[in-house]
C-alpha cells in the first residue's frame, strides 16, 4: 500500500525509489505514482530514456539507440499501459511496409499485412507455400502466448503467489505450445524445409538479431515467434522517436506527484532494517521501502554491498559469463536529396552485406531515417539518421586501436550504404560515431553491453532472471530481466514490478 503520510519537502523517505529512466524504470514509476505511491526517480544522465533516449546536436535530434515503435496496436502492451495511465500516446503512424531489407543479391519489402508478405516472400525467396506455413505457425503460437504475457507474470517463479499467477494464466490453449519449449527457431525451419534457403534464412536471422539478439539456431522458438509476430501486429514510426514515449511516461510520473532528478548517479544501494538506502555520487542519501533498479544486471554488483550481493540468486561469475552484444552506432544529419522519391517515406532500412559473414560488425545494420514532416528530428529538407550494428563489445576497450577501429567501421558502413544510395556521402552534414564506450558513458551500461542477454541455446528462456531480486523490497526491471530485450519487454518488466508492489509482495 502507498504510504498515507503526506509528502514533506526535504523528506528523504519514499515509498519507492527507481534508479534509471529507461522504459522499465519509467513504466514502473509512472504506474506507481498514478496509484498514489510516493515515487522518486533518479537518473544519472542529462537525458531520459537510456538506450531509447535521444540527444540534440548541430540542429538535429538523434535517437540514441531504439527507433522502431511496437505495442501500440489495439490490445498491444503500450496501448493497454497508456489506457491504465489515462494518457494519449505520442503521434505515430503504423507502418506497412515495415521496412526495406537489402540482401547481398536481392531486395525484399517486409510487409506487415500477412497476405502481401506471403506474396512478396514467395516472389523474392521462392518456397512461398513453405514460408506461408511457417509464418502461420509463428502467428498461431504467438497468439496462444499473448494472454500469458498479458498476465504480467514473474518468471521464473519462486513464491507461492508467483506460482499461482503462472498456473492461473495457463489454459489448454497455452499448454498446446509446450512442444515448442524444447525447440529452436531453426528446428522449426527444418520442419518446413526452409533451413537451406539461404536468402530467406539470412532475412529471418536479420530480423531475429534485431529483436532476440541471436540467430535462428540459438533462438528459443517461443521467444523467436513472439518477436517475429510483433511487427505484423504493429510496427510504428513515432514522431520524435521513442524518446517521445519516454517523455509521455515521465510527464505522467510528474503529473501524479512523482519526483525525478536528472544528473543524479546512484553509487551504492544498501539494505537497512525495513528499507533500502540509496547514496548518490553527490553524497545525497534517500530511503524507500521498495527500490526498483532499472540499471542492467551487468551493473548490480558495483551497486550492492558484498553481503547483499551474495544473497542474490544472480551470481556475479555466472552473470559475467552471459553473452551480450555491444552496439556500434552512427548518428548522421543529412540533406534528404540522397533519397530517391520511392524511398523518401520509408523510415526503416535493413542492410545485409554478405551471406557468409556473421550478422554483426557492420555486415548487418538498421538504418533509421526521420520522416518528412517530423520537425522534432530535423529542419525541412534534412533527415536525422540513427544507424546501429551489433558489435563484440570487448574489442572497443583497447585504447590503442579505438580510433582506427572507429574509422574502419565508418568506412565499411558508409561504403555499404552507398551501394544503395550512391549520393549519400555528398549529402552528409554531421556524422557522429557511437561505440560501447559511448554507451557506457551516456547510458551507464557496464562495458557498453546493450539489449539484454543474447540467447545461447533453445533453453535460454528458462534461464531468464526474475524481476524479483528475492531480497525483500528490491526489484529489477529492464532488458536484462524477464521478459527481456526491447522497449516492449523492458516496459513489461517495469509494469510487472509495479503490479507486484501493489499486491504487497
Ligand atoms: C542500438 C540499439 C537499437 C535498439 N533498437 C530498438 C528498437 O528499434 N526498438 C525497441 O523496442 N528496442 C530497441 N532496442 C532495445 C531497447 O532500446 C532497450 O532494450 C530498452 O530501451 C532498454 O530499457 P531499460 O529499461 O533496460 O533501460 P536502459 O535503456 O538501460 O536505461 C536505464 C537508465 O538508467 C540509468 N542508470 C543506470 N545506472 C544508473 C545509476 N547508477 N544511477 C542513476 N541512473 C542510472 C541510465 O542512465 C539509463 O538512462 C535497441 C537498443 C539499442 C542499444
TrEMBL record:
Cleaved signal peptide residues: none
Transmembrane regions listed in the UniProt entry: 12-33
InterPro entries associated with the record: Amino_oxidase, CrtISO-like, FAD/NAD-bd_sf
Protein name, as recorded: Phytoene dehydrogenase
GO biological process: carotenoid metabolic process
Keywords carried by this UniProt record: Membrane, Transmembrane, Transmembrane helix
Keyword Transmembrane helix: yes
Family annotation (Gene3D superfamilies): 3.90.660.50, FAD/NAD(P)-binding domain
Pfam families: Amino_oxidase
Domain Amine oxidase: 24-501
GO MF, one annotated term: oxidoreductase activity
